[in-house]
Every structure is written in C-alpha cells, then in structure tokens.
Specification:
This protein is of the alpha/beta class. It is built from four helices and twelve strands. It has a six-stranded mixed sheet.
C-alpha cells in the first residue's frame, strides 16, 4: 500500500462503503465486476492505456470465483451444497469482455516465515488480500527503451562486472577440489515500478 498514489487507492470495507471504498468481495452484496471495471477506466484515463493485468492473492481470487457476478455469467447459479465456482481464465473473459484487451489475472502464491529466529514457524502470504490493476507493456525493456507506457518492468543490472547483455553474470574459478573448474550463473534482475499513472491499488479486497 502507499506505492500507487496518482490514482486514488481504494479500500475494501465490511459495510457502509463511501467515497474511495468498496464492499469486500467476500460479501454477497458486493459488486466486484463493476468495482474492477470502474477502476479499469480510471487507469485508462490516467495513462492512456487500458489495463491488462490484475494481480491478487489466492484468498481474493477464490472469493471472486465464488461470487455471483461471475458464476451467474459463466457456470450458472450452482447450489448451496455445491456452489458454482469459475476459473481465473473464465473471470478474465467476463472482466475484459467487449474491450478488445487480452487481460490476465495473476494469482500470487508466495509465502514466507514471519517468525523471528527461534520462534514457532508462522507462514504468511507475501502478497496480502489486495488487488493491483495495471497496464503492463509485455514488450517493455526499460534497459534499452525508457519511454514505453508500463506500470512496471524488469530491469537488468548490465553494469555489474561479468554481466552479459541478457542480465546474467557468469563466474568461473578453480580451487583445490579434484573436480577442477567451477562455474556459476547468476541472474541480476529487479522488478521496478516505472509509471504511477498506469496502476491503481485496491486494499483489503477480502478479509478472512
């Protein structure tokens, strides 16, 4: 949060949504399809490109897949015993229908241990229950082209000693080990935000 500031950050709430707020998507009264598509237009009017990427976590993706905004358009109404659920690819078709954009939903699955050394392991999501809507140029390479419109892109540290143009460091050395010569290849990349106007952040899209 706090990284995408040009387009006003939206906050999910349990009830009584007002300006710059929305009902969290685990609520049956929420309207995720309209909420997300409204923010599509915010990004488009800000950077001139229609967003083509949604990044979220597993809990939010599950809530969206169970929501009637999508199930009613794809899989029917289901039943209380076996409620309808749609896939991310089906949600993509609904969200970007009629726009001419081949949009993608990316579901972050990374976890980490946030316990201190010696404490009981406590695994948590790296990406919380939020949503980033963005336009990302799939062909952007800011190492060579710094003028493309894109929310973020991969940078390569091409000035490091031994770095190849593709962003790899190749190291070679010998030691007393009978296996002789050792070689190691390292990747030196950073994913960097490059254009604030090309993204909007929806915080707390679902609270468990």
């Amino acid at each position: 949060t706090g990284l995408w500031t040009t387009n006003t950050e939206q906050t999910g709430v349990a009830s009584g949504a007002t300006t710059n707020e929305f009902l969290q998507f685990g609520d049956s009264s929420s309207i995720p399809l309209q909420t997300l598509q409204d923010q599509f237009r915010v990004v488009q009017k800000s950077c001139g490109r229609f967003p083509n990427v949604i990044l979220t976590n597993i809990d939010v993706a599950i809530a969206l897949g169970r929501h009637s905004d999508f199930t009613s358009r794809v899989a029917g109404s289901g039943s209380s015993a076996e409620p309808a659920v749609v896939t991310t690819s089906q949600m993509e078709r609904v969200l970007w229908a009629g726009t001419g954009v081949d949009g993608k939903i990316h579901v972050a699955q990374g976890i980490y241990n946030n316990a201190k050394e010696g404490e009981t392991v406590n695994l948590a999501d790296i990406f919380g229950p939020h949503i980033l809507i963005a336009y990302v140029d799939p062909n952007a390479n800011p190492t060579f082209d710094k003028v493309r419109t894109t929310a973020f892109a991969n940078f390569t540290h091409s000035t490091f000693s031994g770095m190849t143009p593709t962003g790899h460091t190749i190291k070679s050395w010998r030691d007393n080990n009978p296996e002789g010569t050792w070689r190691a290849v390292e990747d030196e990349f950073d994913v960097v935000k490059t254009m604030d106007e090309a993204g909007v952040f929806l915080k707390n899209a679902r609270i468990l």
